[in-house]
Amino acid sequence: MEYRKLGNTGPEVSAISLGTWVFGGDCWGEVDDSQSVRVVEDAVEKGINLIDTAPIYGNGRSEEVVGRAIRDKRDGVIIATKYGLEQKGRSIKPNSSADFVRKEAENSLRRLGVETIDLYQCHWPDPDTPFDETFGEVEKLVKEGKVRYVGVSNFNREATEQALEIAPLASNQVQYSLFDREIEKELMPFCEEKNISILSYGSLGGGILTGKYKEPPTFPKGDVRIFFYQYYKEPFWSKAKELVSALEDIAGKREVPTSDVAINWVLSRREVTSCIVGCRTPEQLRQNLKAADWKLNGEELAGIREEYDRIFA
User: Which domains does the chain have, with CATH numbers?
Assistant: First the structure.
């Protein structure tokens, strides 16, 4: 496993990290907690040291699963969780008020069974709360030893710059894949200049970049791939399949899964410190881990770029 430095002063983190949204059981279909625990345990044993979760994933369920899995493996494991999304019934809204940040932190520490959150990330910007209030409270948590490093998630360039004026940011977790390259315009250059690590999520395009879907699938009500990842609908679907075909050609020659090519492409960007990949089963984990064992060469990267430009021009 390759390891890369988190921010200016952070630890070395694995180039592939484990995302645990699926463990919540509310947006990706029901899951078995015991199997989720095994996925975390296997990930740590195979060299992944960054585990990303959030209280909003299954109303705390994901954090509890991660806590169970790392109970005897805390040393060397970097736990990243989040705050700032409040759920009331079916409604979810940003809330990064000082009181809610404090409440979220205490609940996360309890569910995870740890004394310190290694990386504490604001899940989404809250337009109703000044950054001074939000990050001022997070800085108090740092001084109290309850948080080690400060991060953000889903912050654009302007919001990242504003937050950086108040707190030393180690990272920004954002959606980034061959299907979503918006951050390349402004956010990536800014983060590189300021030594803020990019942690990518959604790098498999909600599953399409694995190559497993030959026809547009039908997902159950409430599945995140209906409302969060819009790649399964036309006119995007047909273009997506064309690009996946190009990745499949590379995968065939390399004798690796197509998903490895997609992950490898993300990791080819020097601004990306770690690619967060969700895994439902130990088998999926083992498959995704292979992406860290090799690198796309210049010819392959150029070929992907040419196909992308042709298809999405």
Answer: 3-211+260-296 (3.20.20.100)
Query: Residue 135's closest CA among 169, 186, 172?
Result: 169
What is the rounded radius of gyration, in angstroms, for the C-alpha atoms of the chain? 19
Distance CA 69, CA 150 (A): 24
Strands (E), 123-271: 147-153, 169-175, 197-201
Strand locations in the chain (E): 3-5, 12-14, 16-19, 50-52, 78-83, 85-88, 91-94, 117-122, 147-153, 169-175, 197-201, 272-278
Q: In sequence order, which residues have a C-beta less than 8 Å from that of residue 258 and are 6 or more positions away?
A: 209, 210, 211, 244, 247, 248, 251
What secondary structure, in 3-state letters, does 239-277 show?
A: HHHHHHHHHHHHHHHHCCCHHHHHHHHHHCCCCEEEEEE
Lookup result for tokens 């989404």: 124
Unique residue bearing structure tokens 């990303």: 52
Average pLDDT over the chain, rounded to an integer = 92
User: How far lies 193's CA from each of 10, 183, 190, 285, in Å?
Assistant: 16, 14, 5, 33
Please tell me the distance from the alpha carbon of residue 283 to that of residue 119, in angstroms, as a whole number: 27
DSSP state of 293: G
205 alpha carbon, distance to own chain's centre:
12
Give the pLDDT score at 225.
64
Proportion of the chain above pLDDT 90, given as a percent: 76
pLDDT band at 134 (very low <50, low <70, confident <90, very high): very high
24 neighbors 285 (Cβ within 8 angstroms): no
* Per-residue b or e along 27-53, where b marks 16 or more CB atoms closer than 10 Å to that residue's CB: bbeebebeebbebbbbbbeeebbbbbb
Active-site positions?
57
Burial of 280 (0-12, 13-18, 19+ CB in 10 A): middle
pTM above 0.70, yes or no: yes
pLDDT of residue 222: 64
Compute the half-sphere exposure of residue 17: CA atoms within 13 Å on the CB side of its CA.
30
